[in-house]
Amino acid sequence: MNWAQTSARVIDALHQPHFPATLIEAIRSVVPFEHTVTFAYCGNRRPIALHSEFPVWKHKVMVEDYQEGPYLLDPFYLQSSRPGDPRLVRLRDMAPDRFYQGEYFRNYYVQTELAEEIGFMFNVEPNICIVISAMRTSKPFSAHEFRKLGELVPFIGAVGRHNWADLSKQFTQTSQQPETDNLSKIIQHAFRNLGRQILTTREVEVTEYILKGYSAEATAHALGISCGTVRIHRRNIYGKLHINSQGELFSRFISAMTGQDN
């Protein structure tokens, strides 16, 4: 089947329940990949899973567990708050400098057992972004494959915006966490719920960068302070929360987000 026939099938499926699967089939006809998930993001609200193709155990990690809080540290989610033209991006190109040594990767993402994840990103409204992730477990996408998939971006963005034009209603109708301005406020609220001493504004900022996977050097550069000051803040954060490692910080954050920490 040529691309004209494949794209025609996608257009025929618009506003039908099988549209997401038909679109994924069309993308796979150009470049193969094992797994896929499509999320809609609206600010800091719990993301809506629009489509996924995982075994049961992987669905729990990649969809259910993800929606409980880890999404807040996902580079795709963080990128979704920056409106722009439809685009295809590699996770590794967006990730902070210590992402693969950070606790989000080591405690959550490593469970996905993926060799690479790339994502088609487009906005259906200024504050609503859809990410269609294509995932491989065996080998990364080659530069040639990435270019071929990049050629599909205008088509995917156009049909996606048309099919999911009413997503704002779903976010309104679905029971959601109250939307806040940014991750810093969510961190502050989460740790306040733990009944611990409130972190200072600067400590919240440092906590945010630690959780995202930034090194002390990158955090210092982003905040305009010295590495030594970052380390002092980190020591104070750990003391106030009665923890000893980044792993414990990540666990406490997720527990606070899911209401499991008293």
Count of structural domains? 2
* Order of strands across the main sheet: 2-1-5-4-3
Low-confidence stretches: none
User: For the residues shown, what is the average pLDDT?
Assistant: 87
Number of helices: 14
Structural class: alpha+beta
What are the secondary-structure elements, in order, as H or E?
HHEEHHEHHEEHHHHHHHH
Approximate strand percentage? 5-15%
Q: What's the CATH topology label of the largest domain?
A: Beta-Lactamase
Question: Could you give a quick summary of the protein structure above?
Answer:
With 262 residues, the chain is an alpha+beta fold.
Element layout with pairings:
Layout: H1 3-12, H2 19-28, E1 35-42, E2 48-53, H3 56-67, H4 75-80, E3 87-90, H5 91-94, H6 103-107, E4 116-125, E5 128-136, H7 143-150, H8 153-163, H9 167-173, H10 183-192, H11 201-212, H12 216-223, H13 227-241, H14 246-258
Antiparallel strand pairs: 1-2, 1-5, 3-4, 4-5
Structure description:
With 262 residues, the chain is of the alpha+beta class. It folds into 2 domains: 171 residues, Transcription factor LuxR-like, autoinducer-binding domain (Beta-Lactamase, 2-Layer Sandwich); 76 residues, Arc Repressor Mutant, subunit A (Orthogonal Bundle), CATH 1.10.10.10. The protein is 50% helix and 14% strand. The chain has 14 helices and 5 strands. It has a 5-stranded antiparallel sheet with strand order 2-1-5-4-3, sandwiched between helices. Strand 4 and strand 5 form a beta hairpin. Helix 1 packs antiparallel against helix 2, helix 11 crosses helix 13 and helix 12 crosses helix 13. The longest helix is centred in the C-terminal third of the chain and has 15 residues. The radius of gyration is 19 Å and the shape is elongated. The mean pLDDT is 87. This is Response regulator receiver protein.
